[in-house]
Design a protein that fits this description.
Layout (H helix, E strand, L loop, with lengths): L2 H21 L6 H8 L3 H7 L3 H21 L9 H14 L5 H4 L2 H9 L4 H29 L7 H22 L3 H19 L6
Helix pairs in contact: 1-2, 1-4, 4-8, 5-8, 5-10, 7-8, 8-9, 9-10
Length: about 200
């Protein structure tokens, strides 16, 4: 792929992240994405057959981009795995800033709309969510082994639960048009995780 071709494809992907997070998948038109990218529809159809193919590529691009972003985050520097888990939650809270489209999730936005009508998009979103959760589960598993080895829950379930809380926080933030509710929800998630690691059986 030539440098110019690669650049135009990346511009379309970046534009898709912006437009879909702001408008939703259904309302986002190919024309909107092309306008945001500063490219023609001819360029769009050179790279993608249709909006669905772009959405699947955008989900993969989002997973790659955010994966690098989280991999370089400072919470990884903590020696204690529980500090890394709590640091991850604190980091998620710290990046909730700006306007709603700036901090809400492309994946959550698309899968809410397309889970039943578009299997390819749903599967791409599932891979992204579970791939991200699997990375967090590595530290949760180490922390569980150190602090609550007999607890009756598993690391991957807790990692997926954390994503459910964060995605739900974004939904309620959209409903209320306020980041405050999202921040409060993530704060409660932190308290819950602290509770689990302070109770050997993980039960109230």
């Amino acid at each position: 792929m030539s440098e110019a071709t690669h650049e135009s494809k990346q511009r379309l992907l970046d534009a898709a992240l912006t437009v879909i997070r702001a408008k939703g998948y259904s309302a986002a038109r190919v024309d909107d994405i092309c306008d945001a990218a500063g490219l023609t529809k001819g360029s769009f159809f050179h790279h993608f057959k249709n909006k669905e193919e772009l959405a699947v590529a955008a989900a993969e691009y989002w997973a790659c981009t955010t994966g690098k972003f989280f991999a370089s985050a400072p919470y990884h520097d903590a020696a204690d795995p529980l500090d890394r888990v709590l640091g991850y939650i604190d980091f998620r809270s710290a990046i909730i800033q700006g306007d709603l489209p700036d901090y809400t999730c492309l994946i959550g936005t698309m899968v809410q709309e397309q889970y039943d009508s578009n299997p390819a998009i749903r599967e791409a979103c599932e891979r992204c969510i579970y791939g991200h959760a699997a990375e967090l589960a590595k530290d949760i598993d180490l922390a569980k082994a150190r602090y609550v080895p007999d607890a009756d829950w598993n690391a991957m379930d807790l990692a997926v639960y954390s994503q459910a809380v964060i995605q739900g926080a974004f939904i309620v933030a959209k409903a209320r048009l306020s980041m405050d509710v999202a921040l409060a929800s993530v704060s409660h998630l932190r308290r819950y995780i602290e509770f689990l690691f302070s109770h050997p059986k993980g039960k109230a």
